């Protein structure tokens, strides 16, 4: 029952982006930096590796341009990513996983990521319903919900 309630809560918090149905958006309660700090802590707490944290707004400022707060976290777990790349070497173009925290024009902060099933769907070699795809999907859902304050 608890899993069903959590799944419903996640589904209610995840909103498909207008630009693409493949992008999952999760409304966050804090600012971009705090949300990304929470995501990074959740990722590390789950035993995954953080490979990079990119501050897009700082990069823009470095060339005298403005950009709303926006940060990207690149992270992964070889136990999930390696089987995907064993099935389809081109999965390495999409892995490790990435989550973007950004502030929209109204000042709302969002976490966004591409659905792993959609991301790997056209590669050939990745079987429908692959266990690692479902695990990636579940991990992204849990991690972003935790970072969003849910």
Could you give a short description of this structure?
Keywords: Signal. The protein has helices at residues 2-13, 32-45, 56-61, 78-87, 116-120, 131-148; strands spanning 14-16, 23-27, 49-55, 70-76, 97-103, 109-114.
CATH superfamily: TT1751-like domain
- Global Rg: 16 Å
Oligomer: single chain
The name CATH uses for the topology is TATA-Binding Protein
User: Could you say what the CATH architecture is?
Assistant: 2-Layer Sandwich
Order of helices and strands: HEEHEHEHEEHH
Keywords: Signal
InterPro entries: DUF302, TT1751-like_sf
Domain DUF302: 54-116
Signal peptide: 1-19
Summarize the helices and strands and which ones pair or pack.
Layout lengths: L1 H12 E3 L6 E5 L4 H14 L3 E7 H6 L8 E7 L1 H10 L9 E7 L5 E6 L1 H5 L10 H18 L2
Helix pairs in contact: 2-6, 4-6
